[in-house]
Amino acid sequence: MNVIALDAMGGDNAPFEIVKGAVESLKNNKSDITILLVGIENKIEAELAKYTYDKTRMKVVGASEVIGTDEVPTVAIKNKKDSSIVVGLTLVKEGKAKAFVSAGNTGALLTGATVIVGRIKGIERPALGTLIPNKKGFYFLMDAGANVDCKPSYLVQFAKMGAIYVENMQNIKNPRVGIVNIGVEREKGNALTKEAHELLAQQTNIHFVGNVEARDLPSDVADVIVCDGFVGNVILKYTEGFGTAILSLVKEELMSSTLSKIGALLASKAFKNIKRRFDYSDVGGAPFLGLKSLVVKAHGSAKARDIVGAINQCSLFIESDIINKIQND
Amino acid sequence: MNVIALDAMGGDNAPFEIVKGAVESLKNNKSDITILLVGIENKIEAELAKYTYDKTRMKVVGASEVIGTDEVPTVAIKNKKDSSIVVGLTLVKEGKAKAFVSAGNTGALLTGATVIVGRIKGIERPALGTLIPNKKGFYFLMDAGANVDCKPSYLVQFAKMGAIYVENMQNIKNPRVGIVNIGVEREKGNALTKEAHELLAQQTNIHFVGNVEARDLPSDVADVIVCDGFVGNVILKYTEGFGTAILSLVKEELMSSTLSKIGALLASKAFKNIKRRFDYSDVGGAPFLGLKSLVVKAHGSAKARDIVGAINQCSLFIESDIINKIQND
């Protein structure tokens, strides 16, 4: 029985969408999971009362505090011991749950996870992995923002953890690993990427394909792409912001004349397909890899469907025994 | 009389489009400019023979060698003393031209410019500025790739030079200056951006608006946005690659059914407008700021219209006396 703890209070749509996602998850999930809903009990119970579900597989674990999105992570983790994030992470630490999912304060979740759940022995820095859409599907970006100042050796570990994750979760054998750089030539880069490139090229257990220029990120040149968390955060957020900007520009232009409005109407199915291509919901959240158990960051705007995706992701992660594979790598 | 040197051999479409651009520039340019076409004489003369133009304002300066796009910059600059890039930069150094435009090897141009033209006294590192499209128009990104490892003080100089450039070239009074960061809060960032933020906040002669998250880059939050050259290169190239990928995805989807094809036809003017919004041609090339004279990097795929844009940019730059303004800042 895989027990998954879920922060019922995290994100813009908590607790409504989170609890709804948990209920849907139990209905759909083929594997044998139990969900621990962590948060303010009466609020969670009020939501649960709206549904019928298997009560033996859904428990509420009380946590009287909530960490807000604007709180300073280190301070919040230290002061709010009875927050849903701290209580959820503690369930994982104590072995009462095998994974924790939260759509709450990212910094607090990452800080808390490192302190409470702890790193796998030998892992210098856990990293946040995230799937970014490309022309073919997605690539896995490590690190998307957990470590803004990195040493070259961190990037090698990001590459190895990323490859194990993608191989097991996306079922890609011997995934291609690239490093974000300013040119494709080996000697290109800043101090970090030049040294990281050399170290990556020496690894025998990953399929390193070399430097990836940012212009080629959308072209399916690698399955795992490593970079420091500052650059990764820029890529992640720019993908979101620039993608939204272009699509809103297209919409604005299409609405500017009657002819183009009719055109847009006729092409509406095509536009829906494009939107679907950028839809993350089914793939779950961003795993924080390198910890002794799985911690998943769901998007702050997560809805029920995203929560279902994240729970499925946890199930597959646990069944694939990824923690042990990282540990023994 | 403003003399502008132009690398006739640089870029994918040299010398044809470069020479064509030079001829068109003389026709259109209202100000009193003379162009020095630098490169292999018989090739340039053969192109020039196709046009009628004011021969008193167009001269050919011989340079027997060409630096290829794949050559290692430092080696090429050292060994190819009679290359169009080295000869063109030397014309600027010797005061025979006030600016140099090249669509050739970026690394060679930047390395050569720093060595041959030289830095303005007090400028620690010259930086490559580039206009990136946002929802309203463009913002000026400094540094787009010249300095991949930066100190905080460099970013302050990038900010000042960028503000002077935008104020004079784009006619924006008191331009807003932001810094690329992983969060809007002052304390966010890596070691570089945290310290650079503090230094920028202390400046009295720039209008510093604080951190800019990558998701807000397209939202017209600042006129000048500074970052190290590694991050800037990622933003520049990702803008190109991701923009192209989305538009090709839209095209692909629209071509997938008869109905959407008709839709696309009806909306074709709207799509043309979108393309125009992302068109850089009129704004010229990327200025390399912080040198004793102006050096402009035109896009490798530059066509005649881009060259006209770059020449106009040089005229305005010279007339605005930007070098002196940077020097006296």
Tell me about this structure.
Two copies of one chain form a homodimer. Chain A is α/β, with parallel strands linked by helices and 329 residues long. Helix content of chain A is 45%, strand content 17%. Chain A has helices spanning 16-28, 41-48, 73-79, 84-93, 106-117, 152-169, 191-202, 229-254, 258-266, 268-277, 304-319, 322-327; strands at residues 2-7, 33-39, 58-62, 99-102, 127-133, 138-142, 176-180, 207-212, 224-226, 286-289, 294-297. An eleven-stranded mixed sheet of chain A has the order 3-2-1-4-11-10-5-6-9-7-8, with helices on both faces. In chain A, helix 1 (16-28) packs across helix 11 (304-319) and helix 6 (152-169) packs across helix 7. Chains A and B meet through helix 8, helix 9 and helix 10 of A and helix 8, helix 9 and helix 10 of B.
Ordered list of secondary-structure elements with their pairings:
The structure is a homodimer of 329-residue chains.
Chain A: E1 2-7, H1 16-28, E2 33-39, H2 41-48, E3 58-62, H3 73-79, H4 84-93, E4 99-102, H5 106-117, E5 127-133, E6 138-142, H6 152-169, E7 176-180, H7 191-202, E8 207-212, E9 224-226, H8 229-254, H9 258-266, H10 268-277, E10 286-289, E11 294-297, H11 304-319, H12 322-327
Parallel strand pairs in A: 1-2, 1-4, 2-3, 4-11, 6-9, 7-8, 7-9
Antiparallel strand pairs in A: 5-6, 5-10, 10-11
